[in-house]
Amino acid sequence: MSGIPISLKSFFAAACVTWCACSVQHLTGGTSTSENARVKGRIVDQNGVAVGGVRVLLLPVDYDPVKGSGAVAVDTTDASGDYVFAKIIAGVYSIQALDMGKKRGAIIRGIQASDQFDTIFADTVRAPGFVKIAMPASANPENGYIYIPGTTFFVFLKNNSGFVTLDSVPGAKSLDVYYSSTNSPAATVFRYGVRVSSGDTADVWNFGWNYSRNITLNTSATGANVTGLVTGFPALIRLTADNFDFTQARNNGEDIRFTKRDNTSLPYEIERWDAKAGRAEIWVGIDTVYGSDSTQSITMYWDNSNASGNSNGAEVFDTANGFQGVWHLNRKCDDATYGGNNGTNYGTTDTTGIIGYCKKFNGFDSIEIAGLLGSPASITLSAWVQLDSALLSGSEVISIGDAAFIRMDYTSNNIGTGGAVHLSDNDSVFAHVGSGKYLKQTGWHFITMTHSEATSATTLYIDGAIAGVRIDPSEPINYNGLGQNTFIGKHGNGKTGYSFFGRIDEVRVYRTVITAEYVKLCFMNQKNDDQLVGFK
Known about the structure:
Blueprint: E1 5-6, H1 8-11, E2 37-44, E3 55-60, E4 72-76, E5 82-88, E6 91-99, E7 104-113, E8 117-124, E9 128-134, E10 144-147, E11 154-156, E12 163-170, E13 172-181, E14 187-196, E15 201-204, E16 211-217, E17 230-240, E18 257-260, E19 268-274, E20 279-289, E21 297-302, H2 313-316, E22 323-327, E23 343-346, E24 349-352, E25 357-362, E26 366-369, E27 379-389, E28 395-400, E29 404-410, E30 416-422, E31 430-434, E32 445-451, E33 457-462, E34 465-471, E35 486-488, E36 501-510, H3 516-526, E37 533-535
Parallel strand pairs: 2-8, 9-15
Antiparallel strand pairs: 1-4, 2-5, 3-4, 3-6, 6-7, 9-12, 10-11, 10-13, 13-14, 16-21, 16-37, 17-20, 18-21, 19-20, 22-36, 23-26, 24-25, 25-36, 26-35, 27-32, 27-36, 28-29, 28-35, 29-30, 30-31, 32-33, 33-34
């Protein structure tokens, strides 16, 4: 294992085209003139077994395989899978390993070589993947090329239409993709942190956004465990300092974007962006979430200094998908939909919610929304609630003029947490659906009630699961003769015995009956331990 610098051209003469590069002359890795630095490591397979006979290259971390000059240090692993590079210039390097016999390899970047051994443990060779790049509009089609710095991978743009592909790139968690041209010394980052998976294609679109990341929507048994299709779904994306570097994005997230795998833009709404605290909640409109699927994904983009904000809640919570009103209660009482049914705050205070901020109610305050939200014939009400205490008559979460409401811990007939719709001109006749569950001081819960005009079925869900069903003789919801406005945290017809004590977050009203799968997906996605969204 001599680590002798040789020409890449002779090294890869017999290899496939994507593993070869131009002939080079000398190795550079940093500004130091010391040639006493050393690097050693070991190559293993995915079972941890040492792999001998693997050719290993040591390249400067910013090495350009088209413009690069100089020889590259090359070694071959011994029977123990070990390699050593000795008497090299101190600096930062990349390792590129190639097991030609089994067509697998490895790329490791950011290796700091100093005067002492820099040991790299158990680098794993994996089957290759592909990187497919949408050509930048400003690219030079004659002299331009795409490359991965610190490797021998590059592709010229000439004679390519729209896309170019880097073939047989070893699987790696984070690779940078650059653009340059042979008639210019400058190089421009196309994308940082591209993740390459064995046997898969990493699509790189949208030149100008320096970072992107795939976000999975896992509905399989290992995720949200939802089997049916869900359409028109607002997926909640939570960013934290653990899964996102806020310093890479603009101050208020103006450069955040989302697309489908085919690069179709997706609408989104930033509910909260707090870079200082390292927290953000973003709603992304997904046309279809597939059931029993762990492969569906969307892509998030960021870091574009020229991008302006594009957050639009009305597109995410589109009234065409049945939304009648959506109140995030995140420091405001505004309706996120095109309906503009903004609420007026009467005394509630801001506090930490399950999704960003929410409103806290003390039994004397409320939020009032003018009118009855179109008096929908079929309806869904939902909210996240944390009940601290309750009166004997129960606590009102939302009430549309007392014609349709959700009420918690209602003692009458042991209804407990439930809901009701008014089906008669008589003020006292309601179709109640109860759960028999009393949820005071049991933390956050997701409560949903639906009523179908077609079937006269009223269904109650608690935390995504059906908690009660009632079917009455066919009769429409009666909105006449009761309250004239909608209230959050207060009875809708002026009665004072149903005050709410606690927190309410993410209140929604639909003019449709959402499905049981939709309800469950909301719960699994929005609860603190989100089981739908994953980050690659």
